[in-house]
Design brief:
alpha+beta, 15-stranded mixed β-sheet, four-stranded antiparallel β-sheet
Length: about 475
């Protein structure tokens, strides 16, 4: 059965198959017994269903394919990752995991003559590869940057056993580069010459690896142009994986490594937002995820002492922080339109709104998930050009705060009366008490006045 898909007017699909196909027989070898009974088959295109028809009863959805190869002995393999079938009786529309499926054929000349292998490689193979990845060029090379120490320390294994084979199936050469010390990714990304030979950069790690990369990229003299032109991909291998979870949510795909790499292989990068922060000490930081202050920052950063507990450390420390509850005083200013940002020490303009109050929680989010399992900002998109500020004032109770933390998992906190949600393009936070931390993308920065502005569509991301 071939289900209909949206892309039915592909220029590749509407073109005629090369004449070399008329001179070929395709002997399926996935199932030798079945192929003996069925005999040789012809490949054809079903444009209305966006599929390669391999026999009277079977076809391969082009949207599931990532590449094709022909060996020196004339073996043609088409690499596909179809979604697993829904469970019997299930009506769920949730995304399902993708699993590898290869279709292999022995190519033979239809007139019993010698197979013209060079002709197959110059006509059939480029056509099949262009069907799998219409926007791809040949001989692509991707830098695969791996943090071998993040999360459960599975980064290198994931890169070698999942990322590398799938990229090779897509006719992409992966250059796997492990980071060796803190700040290594920042050093690599700030190099003006190192990255010029790559067609994309893939991060295998957690949000910490991406944070390091962003700080290095922001130091480049060609930073803006480079980010707009170079595609980036994320393969989760950390403890938080907020960006990867957000990508999976927006792309409506199953939250696993294979699905992440599949999207990278399909090679359709899209614009995504970044933000730029400036502090009272004159430092600047590039961000892709969030900024927190108050109880969320305290839990994230101070719970490091419980790292041995894994992700449970956040729950344990959050309970302790609610028992020993602190209030945090600050002045918050924000604006929801394009503005020229004042310097940190200068007053904000009349179009800004300013609040001075006691707070329990301040969380500026750019993506739907702060980490896997935390649907913190359901209305955030990858490219909406907005911050969503989640604010809990000091008058809220411990029970209010507890219900919010419990509701982060499914996003239902947005319905709670004590949770204020402010949409803006820029904000300034001026802490008036020295009893918390400021956390950008999971990393602590210096404490004090800080302001941020969204940079809409500032980088290209596979999602």
């Amino acid at each position: 059965h071939m289900s209909s898909v949206h892309n039915t007017d592909s220029p590749v699909l509407s073109s005629s198959w090369p004449s070399v196909l008329d001179s070929l027989k395709f002997i399926p070898i996935n199932n030798l017994e079945a192929s003996r009974k069925a005999g040789p088959s012809k490949l054809s295109l079903d444009a209305s269903n966006n599929a390669i028809v391999t026999s009277s009863t079977t076809s391969i959805k082009i949207d599931d394919c990532i590449g094709a190869d022909i060996t020196d002995t004339g073996l043609l393999t088409i690499h596909a990752y179809p979604m697993s079938a829904p469970k019997c009786g299930s009506t769920s529309t949730k995304p399902r995991p993708r699993t590898y499926s290869q279709s292999t054929f022995q190519l033979q000349s239809s007139d019993a003559g010698t197979l013209d292998l060079p002709l197959c490689n110059s006509t059939l193979l480029p056509l099949l590869r262009s069907l799998c990845n219409p926007s791809s060029s040949s001989n692509r090379k991707y830098l695969v940057l791996v943090n071998p120490f993040s999360g459960k320390k599975q980064g290198l294994k994931i890169a070698q056993e999942i990322v590398k084979p799938m990229l090779l199936q897509s006719n992409i050469t992966p250059i796997i580069t492990p980071t060796t010390h803190p700040g290594h990714a920042t050093e690599l990304m700030s190099s003006p010459t190192l990255l010029s030979s790559y067609d994309a950069i893939i991060a295998v790690g957690g949000d910490g690896l991406l944070y390091e990369m962003m700080q290095g990229l922001s130091r480049r003299p060609d930073s803006s142009t480079f980010l707009e032109q170079m595609p980036f991909g994320i393969v989760p291998a950390g403890s938080g994986n907020g960006l990867a979870a957000s990508v999976n949510s927006v792309a409506d795909k199953f939250d696993d490594t294979t699905s992440n790499v599949f999207v990278i292989c399909k090679n359709v990068p899209k614009p995504a937002d970044l933000s730029l922060y400036h502090t009272s000490e004159g430092n600047s930081y590039s961000s892709f995820l969030s900024l927190s202050w108050g109880i969320v920052a305290d839990v994230d950063l101070e719970s490091e002492v419980l790292r041995a507990l894994g992700s449970l450390r956040f729950d344990v420390y959050a309970v302790w922080r609610m028992i020993a509850l602190k209030k945090y005083q600050a002045k918050l200013s924000y604006v929801n339109r394009e503005v020229e940002m004042p310097k940190v020490g200068e007053p904000v303009g009349e179009e800004w709104t300013t609040i001075e109050d006691n707070f329990l929680c301040f969380w500026a989010l750019q993506t739907s998930h702060a980490s896997q399992g935390m649907h913190t900002s359901p209305s955030s998109k990858m490219d909406d050009g907005k911050f969503h500020l989640y604010v809990v004032r000091g008058k809220a109770t411990r029970l209010n705060l507890l219900t919010s933390f419990l509701a982060f998992e499914d996003g239902s906190h947005v319905k709670q009366k004590h949770m204020e949600i402010i949409e803006c393009t820029a904000f300034r936070l001026e802490p008036l008490t020295d009893n918390s931390h400021i956390d950008i993308d999971g990393e602590e920065v210096e404490y004090g006045t800080i302001q941020g502005q969204v940079k809409a569509g500032a980088w290209r991301l596979f999602y």
